Amino acid sequence: MIIERLIILDYENEVANEFNFSKNVNVITSDGTTVGKSSLIKSLYYALGFEIKQFPHGWNFKTMRFRLDVKIKESAYSIIRDNSLFYVSDSEGALNLTEFSEWLQQKLSVNMMLKLRNSTTNELSSVYATEILTPFYLDQDKSWNGYIFKNTSDSLGRYSNVPQDILEYVLGISNKEILEKETEKGNNQKQVNQITSKINVLNSLQEEYAEQTEMIDSSPYDIDELKVTFNNHLKQLSRVSKEISNKKNKMLSLKADQDLNSQDNVELEKILKVNKKTYKEVELECVHCHSKLTLEQSLTRLKLKNNLLEIQNMLDSNRKENEKLQLGIEELQTEIKDLSSSYVILIQQKKEIQSILSLQNFIDLESKRLANEEFLKVIDNLNTNKTNIEELVKRLAKEIRELKKDQKERKAEISKKYNEILSDINLRFGSTKLSEVEFFNFKEVKGSGMDNNKTLLALYITYMRLVAEYGIYTIPFGIDSFVKNEIDEATVPITFKEVERYVLSNSNQTFFATISENLKYLSKLDTYNIIKLTKPLLNKVNYKKMLSQVSYIK
């Protein structure tokens, strides 16, 4: 992925700006702090779906709309984010965060699945955009608390083994494919065991049947047992009838909520039309009580400002909620249909029980079904099925062995590279802790001060370099800041050189923020795209020009 342009528009304060980027290294700088470097990088990754924990003070992203122009595999796309809604250039209508995350993974040809924190099984869950972006982004506020890549977003707290599972997937050493094949192998082996049991039972029955020359004598059903069965059916009928009634009530409640939402949308659409007309005073009719309202009264009732973007956002949010309610209604309709079918079957069974069957008739029917030639046919089919499944189990076992071998070799190769990079960095950093941190050891880096900061930086640099070289998909790297605490003057040039040596030198597009006085520590500054920021970051001059460019993509 390459990010070509970012537009930020604050529709409450009516200010905006756009920023154009190089496909290589983009250095975002300013003459001092608090100019907007962090706000710019955080906004860029927020627009990509990253759930930022903390924006700078005064940066009200909730009244802003962001547009990214990106290239993914040589195809151009536009992404607009407005709070929890996304609009992409190749899809109609608004997407929620889940839908946008699916869109992003599909474009990147990835399918990351992680284990949930509270899950009692090994079942894997789909992820959001934050997890896809995590190894590529360092946050000024949340990346330096002792755990690398772990606490940059609240979204990551849903999963049990972060960041290891994420990095394993990105580096192509994930257990996901192995787990899936082992699960498939286990399920097929269960089928083999079940079929074997059936074959043994049928063989035993067939031998007994072959020896049998006369029909078995029997007596009629016990009348008391028949009464018990009949009463059980009555209880089942009562339970199913009650379930049908409850689900119909739930469905009516959902429909009522949907109707209220739709009525509000009618009024919102009228407000949108009113905004496009030239006259000031317009009467609107309340869709709930049918009283006449002025435009201002209608906006007050809906708790809105007379702002087209905010009104449109509420209209689309209502529509997304109606889609969710409609899914709930359709699910309940399906469940009611299934329960009604069960009810009909139970009624029929109740009627059948009322006629007394003799055990002799039952034995006659079973005798016909279990005739000797039918036994043999069933056993033969089961044996064929068992052989086929056993061959599949063998093939899966071979594939698992090969995957584990490849995984082991790739992990060993990446681990070797990890140690080489970390050792090289430590020649200049001189951290006492780095030699103790093994590959894929994501425990807390304890301590404080300059040594702790250098240790974390060295680990980030190392893993980002590994992601650049071995990653199975490409996202631009974003380094909001790589120093959390004050460091001495002698250390500053070293840290910049290491970032330049191992991060800025890779082929990924990179965004790197630093104050202008530190630019002297970058030896290849003439090859970088320098973006010099000044206050204010957003201005009124650009607002009207940018407004049409952040409208919903058609």
Give an account of the 3D structure.
With 554 residues, the chain is an alpha/beta fold. Among the domains are: 2-110 and 130-154 and 477-550; 221-357, Helix Hairpins. 52% of the residues lie in helices and 12% in strands. It has helices spanning 37-47, 97-108, 129-133, 164-170, 176-211, 223-276, 295-301, 308-353, 359-369, 372-429, 449-470, 491-504, 543-547, and strands at 2-10, 15-20, 25-30, 64-72, 75-82, 85-88, 113-115, 124-126, 137-138, 283-285, 292-294, 477-479, 510-515, 529-532. The strands form four sheets. The protein has a five-stranded antiparallel beta sheet with strand order 2-1-4-5-6. It has a five-stranded parallel beta sheet with strand order 9-12-13-3-14, covered by helices on one side. The radius of gyration is 33 Å and the shape is flat.
Could you outline the blueprint of secondary structure elements for this entry?
Elements: E1 2-10, E2 15-20, E3 25-30, H1 37-47, E4 64-72, E5 75-82, E6 85-88, H2 97-108, E7 113-115, E8 124-126, H3 129-133, E9 137-138, H4 164-170, H5 176-211, H6 223-276, E10 283-285, E11 292-294, H7 295-301, H8 308-353, H9 359-369, H10 372-429, H11 449-470, E12 477-479, H12 491-504, E13 510-515, E14 529-532, H13 543-547
Helix pairs in contact: 5-10, 6-8, 10-11, 10-12, 11-12
